[in-house]
Amino acid sequence: MKPLTFKPKSRWREFIGEKAISMSAYAALVAIFLIFIFIFKESLPIFTDPKVRQEASLDRLFLKQPFYEDSERLWVWQPTSDEPKYSLMPLFIGTFKAALIAMLFATPLAVLAAIYTSEFASKRMREIIKPTIELLAGLPSVVLGFFALIVLASILQDTFGLVFRLNALNAGLALGITVIPVIFTIAEDAMSAVPHSLRDAATALGATPWQVSLTMVLPAALPGIAAGVVLGFGRAIGETMIVLMASGNAAIVSGSLTDSIRTLSATIAAELAEVVFGSGHYSVLFFIGTLLFLFTFLINLGGDLVLHRLKERLQGRSS
Asked: Which 3 state secondary structure label does DSSP give 57?
């Protein structure tokens, strides 16, 4: 048998390859850092410019303000009125209402699908179900927004007799479709990573497949499932096109899930193109962008930390 021969390694090629990979990683970090610096710099006049502060100071953004002289204090978002008002509370409420509905809709479906795929489906069925659900993540958000605008909104209004055709419920359900692949993928990977020796031990003790799944596999994979839910929540908070098309875009302070809403990301998308450069409205929109950037960054960081702890736990490197 002819012995295998290997081409001698080129130290220069290895050096260039390592440097190219490291430079790509650092370039991505620098790009993210510069984007954040740009967004934060454009929002700085809210803290430093007296003219902008007179129109859009922090107390005007977060506290109730009088609509007219001696009138009741309200949270109002009216940036184009004679006396612009920039209360962020209607936008916060709209954002969390849409994200909450999306998570309530997507989490049970995604976790149950992950349990079936990892524990009960045959190998052939698993190879069909998993890629199919993950393909949902590749659907353009404008397509889902169009579906929610034309089809889903009509079905919900005819079924429940809703006053507003475009509302938080409609936007939240459409958002949930985009969140399902995020939660499903991470939850299914976490369950599949649970060692089969644990399943065999539970089965040897007389547990049924459902008991093994619900009392042994599910608790062991819980950190991974939690990471998927956290990352899905971050995806729902930052989504723009779907809520822009399906929510009605009305900045209303309301606890009803069937009223129209406006979210933080949709406000930036709808108003930034027509705002006067350097105005108070311009600075407020970039301040909203800074809040969204920090919020989604912290959520994704928390999800990654939980997932990292799961891997260490399953590999026996942590208590």
From this structure: coil
